[in-house]
Write a structure and sequence with these properties.
2 copies of one chain form a homodimer.
Chain A (H helix, E strand, L loop, with lengths): L3 E6 L6 H19 L17 E9 L3 H7 L4 E6 L2 H10 L24 E4 L1
Parallel strand pairs in A: 1-3
Antiparallel strand pairs in A: 1-4
């Protein structure tokens, strides 16, 4: 079953509120990127027409993404122990993931050294 | 400055991982609803054309939403003490909020009795 996994660095010892806000940041961030050609709005802006722009996500009926959005919308939080572990997952493990984008990689949100990131399994 | 506020029930004594996943659920949930006429995909489906559907969000340049999306994308977590407090904020305080939708209420995500919810201030 497709789920969004939020990876959090345990070594940063974030408090609950901080972790929740940061985890949400990554959960929503990956979604916004999927609506903007895999780029953040700071990296690339959609076309502005008559003073507004559109973020859009096309979903194929029956796809993993569709099942997730219309299903239980499951999210889980996993802890990693260090920045190195986080980087390893981000750079080397994404190829194993089930929900692929067209370039063969799973969507994953922008992340910083001390930010959680999220991706879909 | 516009921010997304995630309200979490303290009395449920959720652990960090659970709170992070549930908070993300509400953070992303409100966004998905904004892309679907304020409804969840279970309540109402967009039109399906050639086996797919689109979720779309129109953003006015310079609006609170635009500033938030392109700015610091700030999120904060606030604790409430009980289901009653959560319901009070959800039903009675939304009119005070800065980021209004066309119906005059601030977007807020679907919520359950034991779910956090999020909205924009």
């Amino acid at each position: 079953m497709t789920k969004q996994v939020i990876f959090v660095r345990k070594d940063l010892k974030m408090k609950k509120g901080k972790m929740t806000a940061q985890g949400s940041h990554s959960s929503l961030g990956v979604f916004l990127q999927m609506m903007n050609n895999g780029k953040s709005l700071r990296e690339e802006m959609p076309e502005i027409v008559n003073g507004s722009y559109s973020l859009k996500l096309d979903v194929t009926v029956g796809s993993d993404l569709d099942n997730w959005l219309r299903g239980v919308f499951r999210k889980i939080t996993l802890a990693v122990n260090s920045e190195e572990e986080l980087m390893d997952i981000y750079y080397h493990r994404r190829e194993d993931l089930r929900l692929k984008e067209q370039d063969g990689r799973s969507p994953a949100s922008r992340w910083g050294m001390n930010r959680p990131f999220s991706m879909f399994f």
